[in-house]
């Protein structure tokens, strides 16, 4: 037997020596506004639990009922014998919510993004992608034979140059692909300008709205709805693993032919198991709640504003914006060290946040990414700010 253990150990040591080794902290509790770990109880400011639904009893109940009525699993992919009435109901709900013809479920948004490009585009086409797009978009684009172009994050000037180049190259279809919200900064994509360019150059627009659906824009319909560009976006993808319940599952919502084609040929759809019925039932309830959660969205907005303002008042550098993702920057020479140490100190003070350093973010742009949730109270937010201040004094 030949073993690669020595080689792997070296690489693992390399990751450790570079200070990039990710140790997973085990929770001893549900995912909620506060969590229990071996280090004690801490307010949780690093989950994508924007609407606070992850431990919502209504979702737990709905999932229970789904489990009772529809069983544990389907032991099949969708097209063989893995589609229950329930799955279609969720797809129709998503389509109606996002105002598209139809929607199609995947096991995750990672899979949705992994499957869509190869299914829809080929060598005659061009895919133009924002440089900070999510890893799943990057991988999905790689799996497809289309020409690839990239523009700097949210730079519509560079995007236009790409569109010109695509036109010159006589591309059949050109598609612009962007995250609705960039998760490391909490910045929104400039969708109206992107859509204007798409109109000028006859391009399609695809938006992955994983960090927006459920809590951004009217009814939480997302970034495009917020910017009144909803009917100008051709393809929406998103996750059920963030605001919409936080379990798992992803989807593509688009016009009928796109959804129909994905059902025929998208590989993660054809060759990966059906989403478990309990999750589908939970997601239907999560979507129902999200649609009507104006109060929670308003509370989330207020808590986000409170956090951002208090942090600025306390002298922290915070990237501008309104999204609950708030990047607290540590830009100095020792920024990475500072961010990491402060995050560690804060856990001792009962606040759980995570530091992001190179290579997850560019060198010199270390940060602690705070994610506010509708489940946080004003006191929780104030406690978080206080912990930042105390931790900073300690280092
Ligand atoms: C989280 C995220 C994904 C992955 O979603 P999963 O359903 O967890 O696979 C994809 N795209 C973006 C932009 C995300 O933020």
UniProtKB/TrEMBL annotation:
<feature type="binding site">
    <location>
        <position position="134"/>
    </location>
    <ligand>
        <name>substrate</name>
    </ligand>
</feature>
<feature type="binding site" description="in other chain">
    <location>
        <begin position="239"/>
        <end position="242"/>
    </location>
    <ligand>
        <name>pyridoxal 5'-phosphate</name>
    </ligand>
</feature>
<dbReference type="GO" id="GO:0008890">
    <property type="term" value="F:glycine C-acetyltransferase activity"/>
</dbReference>
<feature type="binding site">
    <location>
        <position position="369"/>
    </location>
    <ligand>
        <name>substrate</name>
    </ligand>
</feature>
<dbReference type="InterPro" id="IPR004839">
    <property type="entry name" value="Aminotransferase_I/II_large"/>
</dbReference>
<comment type="pathway">
    <text>Amino-acid degradation; L-threonine degradation via oxydo-reductase pathway; glycine from L-threonine: step 2/2.</text>
</comment>
<dbReference type="InterPro" id="IPR011282">
    <property type="entry name" value="2am3keto_CoA_ligase"/>
</dbReference>
<feature type="binding site" description="in other chain">
    <location>
        <begin position="208"/>
        <end position="211"/>
    </location>
    <ligand>
        <name>pyridoxal 5'-phosphate</name>
    </ligand>
</feature>
<feature type="binding site" description="in other chain">
    <location>
        <begin position="109"/>
        <end position="110"/>
    </location>
    <ligand>
        <name>pyridoxal 5'-phosphate</name>
    </ligand>
</feature>
<keyword id="KW-0663">Pyridoxal phosphate</keyword>
<protein>
    <recommendedName>
        <fullName>2-amino-3-ketobutyrate coenzyme A ligase</fullName>
        <ecNumber>2.3.1.29</ecNumber>
    </recommendedName>
</protein>
<comment type="similarity">
    <text>Belongs to the class-II pyridoxal-phosphate-dependent aminotransferase family.</text>
</comment>
<dbReference type="Pfam" id="PF00155">
    <property type="entry name" value="Aminotran_1_2"/>
</dbReference>
<feature type="modified residue" description="N6-(pyridoxal phosphate)lysine">
    <location>
        <position position="242"/>
    </location>
</feature>
<dbReference type="GO" id="GO:0008710">
    <property type="term" value="F:8-amino-7-oxononanoate synthase activity"/>
</dbReference>
<comment type="function">
    <text>Catalyzes the cleavage of 2-amino-3-ketobutyrate to glycine and acetyl-CoA.</text>
</comment>
<feature type="binding site" description="in other chain">
    <location>
        <position position="183"/>
    </location>
    <ligand>
        <name>pyridoxal 5'-phosphate</name>
    </ligand>
</feature>
<dbReference type="InterPro" id="IPR015422">
    <property type="entry name" value="PyrdxlP-dep_Trfase_small"/>
</dbReference>
<dbReference type="GO" id="GO:0019518">
    <property type="term" value="P:L-threonine catabolic process to glycine"/>
</dbReference>
<feature type="domain" description="Aminotransferase class I/classII large">
    <location>
        <begin position="43"/>
        <end position="388"/>
    </location>
</feature>
<comment type="subunit">
    <text>Homodimer.</text>
</comment>
<dbReference type="InterPro" id="IPR015424">
    <property type="entry name" value="PyrdxlP-dep_Trfase"/>
</dbReference>
<dbReference type="GO" id="GO:0005829">
    <property type="term" value="C:cytosol"/>
</dbReference>
<keyword id="KW-0808">Transferase</keyword>
<keyword id="KW-0012">Acyltransferase</keyword>
<feature type="binding site">
    <location>
        <begin position="272"/>
        <end position="273"/>
    </location>
    <ligand>
        <name>pyridoxal 5'-phosphate</name>
    </ligand>
</feature>
<dbReference type="InterPro" id="IPR050087">
    <property type="entry name" value="AON_synthase_class-II"/>
</dbReference>
<dbReference type="InterPro" id="IPR001917">
    <property type="entry name" value="Aminotrans_II_pyridoxalP_BS"/>
</dbReference>
<dbReference type="InterPro" id="IPR015421">
    <property type="entry name" value="PyrdxlP-dep_Trfase_major"/>
</dbReference>
<dbReference type="GO" id="GO:0030170">
    <property type="term" value="F:pyridoxal phosphate binding"/>
</dbReference>
């Amino acid at each position: 037997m030949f073993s690669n253990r020595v080689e792997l150990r070296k690489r693992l040591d390399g990751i450790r020596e570079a200070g990039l080794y990710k140790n997973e902290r085990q929770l001893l509790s549900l995912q909620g506004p506060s969590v229990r770990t071996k280090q004690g109880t801490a307010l949780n400011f690093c989950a994508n639990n924007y609407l606070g639904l992850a431990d919502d009893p209504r979702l737990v109940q709905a999932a229970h009922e789904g489990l009772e009525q529809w069983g544990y699993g389907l032991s099949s992919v969708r097209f063989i014998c893995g589609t229950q009435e329930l799955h279609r109901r969720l797809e129709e709900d998503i389509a109606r919510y996002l105002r598209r013809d139809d929607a199609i479920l995947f096991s995750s948004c990672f899979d949705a993004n992994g499957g869509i490009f190869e299914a829809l585009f080929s060598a005659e086409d061009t895919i133009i992608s924002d440089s900070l797009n999510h890893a799943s978009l990057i991988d999905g684009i790689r799996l497809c034979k289309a020409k690839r172009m990239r523009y700097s994050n949210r730079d519509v000037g560079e995007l236009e140059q790409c569109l010109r180049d695509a036109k010159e190259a006589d591309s059949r279809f050109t598609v612009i692909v962007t995250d609705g919200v960039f998760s490391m900064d909490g910045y929104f994509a400039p969708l109206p300008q992107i859509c204007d360019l798409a109109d000028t150059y006859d391009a399609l627009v695809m938006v992955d709205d994983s960090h927006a659906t459920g809590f951004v824009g009217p009814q939480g319909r997302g970034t495009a709805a917020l910017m009144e560009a909803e009917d100008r976006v051709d393809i929406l993808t998103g996750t059920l693993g963030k605001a919409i319940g936080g379990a798992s599952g992803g989807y593509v919502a688009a016009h009928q032919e796109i959804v129909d084609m994905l059902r025929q040929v998208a590989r993660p759809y054809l060759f990966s198991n059906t989403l478990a019925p309990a999750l589908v039932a939970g997601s239907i309830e999560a979507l129902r709640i999200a649609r009507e959660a104006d109060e929670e969205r308003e509370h989330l907005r207020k808590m986000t504003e409170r956090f951002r303002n208090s942090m600025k008042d306390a002298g922290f550098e915070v990237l501008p914006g309104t999204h609950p993702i708030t990047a607290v920057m540590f830009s100095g020479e020792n920024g990475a060290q500072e961010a990491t140490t402060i995050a560690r100190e804060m856990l001792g003070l009962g606040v759980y946040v995570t530091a992001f350093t190179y290579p997850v973010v560019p060198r010199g742009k270390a940060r602690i990414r705070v994610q506010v949730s509708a489940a946080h109270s004003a006191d929780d937010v104030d406690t978080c700010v206080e912990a930042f201040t105390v931790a900073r004094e300690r280092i």
